[in-house]
């Protein structure tokens, strides 16, 4: 099951600091086509900061982020979205006044070409484009089983459902690289299983690199192909889930002794 | 979003349409025909107020895009109307343009000035932005009065000729009514469409979560400015109609006071709701005659000096009271009430 596709994302020697606090120190890793790469580490290790560097929220001090061989350090977040870098958020950053459907349609923004005048008249080309994009969004609604939420305002949805809408919105951007920031935080076992299934479905369907930040070791070890471990902003290990479980550094920094028998973190 | 019982959309086209059922179509057409005969129904006396409502509807459609959809704020809306009105009058009086030729220029000039005063929105939000747009409300009238009083007439009133089309001259309030109503209905339709389009979704995305919007590919700066531009286009159109409605313009028509009334209409109507905005305009504009109506009887209970104060002060008092009541009891405005009412009659008599 180990993916050996082309390298899509290269992060090289990335350093990020806030004042005198070093959030990331010389972090490098690569993500390949069709692989699920887990990013783990204790709280404050720099996982989300790393995702923010890739999606363009933060500008790293040193180092490079290359996507499809293209250096994107100076590229704005909205341009990165056009390149196909899409993400979900730890604290669900949806457009809460819109329906689930409109949240997904809003993510089709970069694919819809008509302008404000055509939009105001809403006839012919604009109408046609809306309907085309609607059918793409409906496929995502089918895939993620969001039909019940379709016409409901996101604010009124349950937490688990909102997490799914967030994932749906990231998918509506037709990602070529998908970043998931704690997609299973705060979910019960059943919801986690659903979410894991969705992530595997997406990987199979789209064959894109998926980078996932997650604290649930059971899920991480089950679905990821490779794991990168961060601690205090530095990468302390990288390898297959089996290698990581046995890695002494990782055990002392994050997993803890009990995990050797495979119990505690599950 | 609730659908009328038993109506199922089997195409996406039907699902995104606004007028979807036969009763709705009948109602829409009946409503439009009723608008045609409104002057005859109401009598010519009340039509002046109806025209003011129509002009305010045009204006408020723009402001609702900016405040309701994009979540930005402008305290200079009335000044942007002034830009539209003065551009129209300048072009007509000094360059001999016809109304129809001058109209696009006045709409566009208001749009561009609005865009200019929207620039601070790229850096600041909320209260600070309100203060920055307040600058427009002071600068624009000052420029009108002081820079070229020989052209703009300074503080004095300028008259304009009534526009005409194909020999039909809009020279009475009843005739102007048709001009105003045409543009009011057009603005409502265009705004409702914009709201459900890509642009409207991008605006709401910026309002609800600007960081996520940027990550999802919306160029925030561009769309914020676009929102200011569109908002001021409507203000420019409303200003031009105002000039026609009055038959004259004076800088005193475009005050901060008016801008605040527009904000009041948005609050009463409900942010981001097109029908709500229309209700808000009607409600607030009807308050003025209403407070003149109730003013004298209330004043008669008090001694003369206090009574006179009540007569002159009742209108802002009622306005303030209404805004307070709405902010406390129905912050989502009449638009939300309208939605509740629609749910009610669609489900009636079964309340499940």
Tell me what you see in this structure.
The complex is a heterodimer of chains A (266) and B (352). Chain A folds into 2 domains: 1-84 and 175-266, 3-Layer(aba) Sandwich (Rossmann fold); 93-173, no CATH class. Chain A starts with 6 loop residues before the first strand and ends in an 11-residue tail after the last helix. Chain A has 266 residues and is α/β, with parallel strands linked by helices. Chain A has helices at residues 47-55, 77-83, 100-107, 116-121, 125-143, 159-172, 189-206, 217-223, 241-246, 248-255, and strands spanning 7-18, 21-32, 36-40, 62-67, 70-71, 85-87, 177-181, 210-213, 226-231, 234-239. In chain A, helix 3 (100-107) packs parallel to helix 6. A 6-stranded mixed sheet of chain A has the order 6-7-8-3-9-10, with helices on both faces. Chain A is globular, with a radius of gyration of 19 Å. Chain B is mostly helical. Chain B folds into 2 domains: 45-254, no CATH class; 255-352, no CATH class. Chain B is 74% helix and 2% strand. Chain B starts with 11 loop residues before the first helix and ends in a 5-residue tail after the last helix. The relative contact order of chain B is 0.15. The chains are: A alpha/beta (266), B mainly alpha (352).
